[in-house]
Amino acid sequence: MTALATSDASSPCDDAGVDQDVAAAPRADCIADSAGGLTFDVTDPGGKGAAYLLLRRRDAASADEDVRLPLSPAADGRLRAALPSSVELAEGRWNAYAEVGGATPRRLAPGVNDLRSLVDRAPSGARGHIAVRIPYATKQGNLSVRSWLRAPHAEIGELRISGAAVTAQGRVYGTVLTTAAYAEASLRAEPDRIERSELTADGVEFSFGLHCDVLAHSGPGPWDLWLRPAGESGPRIRLARLLDDVPDKKQIFTYPAVRLDTAVHGPLDAGPYYTNDNDLSVRIREANAVED
Question: Residue 212, SS3?
């Protein structure tokens, strides 16, 4: 994936409207570090008084969740703010603003994102959780940050597809794999309907296989994939792919669907996909159905 470029990736869940002239908006270049921190270099937002970079979570219940980062003078007349990995940022999409002297915050426009440190990132897992923050440009040309905070976390790596069989490899963070570990698929419409898959573990690495034809017996509908690292009595971890520079994987990481002829439900198409939250699922749908 391209890691050093002017932001041009938009999200299917972008903010609903433009609150200012994007061309006149202050711009922010972003640099990501391997620990999960971000540095913002902002062009002069104008105004007088204390300046802050404001992060506001979309759909937040109140402004109490806002994160304000001091903007201090940096090179080339810019202002710099740092979001260290130690500052917690709840999961979701955070809109970025410049706030000066208590005036109405102004949305920031995206500049250049240096996300090279996020490619093939492998955190130590020593903190018991992983924090992921990826800056991106919305459809409206504003700067936002996609955040994940998972404790523990199961990161999906390579997927191999052979007919109706899918083999997945991954790694756990913040937990250990026991001899009782397994993977499971649960039908989203009926969460108690579960299909288990045997797991092969090697330290913190794991692999498992699943068969889409087995899932298709229940007819159309998505199945969500989980890891049970300590068996039925332990935590249940959503399988996801987060540790790279791609904020929205659904349209980027696509996989072929296999045609299945079922006696009860007729022809179905089945295959893995990533959700809007970058979680791994399996889609079972009627053959030739329009993609959602």
Answer: helix
Question: Given the DSSP bridges, would you call strands 153-162 and 237-240 parallel, antiparallel or unpaired?
Answer: parallel
What are the angstrom distances between the C-alpha of 146 and each of 131, 136, 198, 282, 288? Answer: 11, 8, 33, 23, 32
83, 69 Cβ separation under 8 angstroms: yes
Q: How far apart are CA 188 and CA 226, in angstroms?
A: 12
Residue with the two structure tokens 């903010």:
15
Site of tokens 């002829």? 261
Listed range (21-30, 134-143, 236-245) with the worst mean pLDDT: 21-30
Encoding tokens for residue 267? 């022809």
List the beta bridge partners of residue 165: 162, 211
Check pLDDT > 50 for residue 11. no
- The secondary structure element, H or E, covering residue 214 is helix 212-215
Q: Which DSSP helix (H) or strand (E) runs through 143? A: strand 143-150
Q: Residue 53 — very low, low, confident or very high, per pLDDT cuts 50/70/90?
A: very high
| pLDDT value at 8 more than 50 | no
Q: How far apart are CA 140 and CA 87, in angstroms?
A: 27
Please, are residues 260 and 271 in contact by the beta-carbon 8 Å criterion?
no
| Alpha carbons 40 and 81: distance in angstroms, whole number | 5
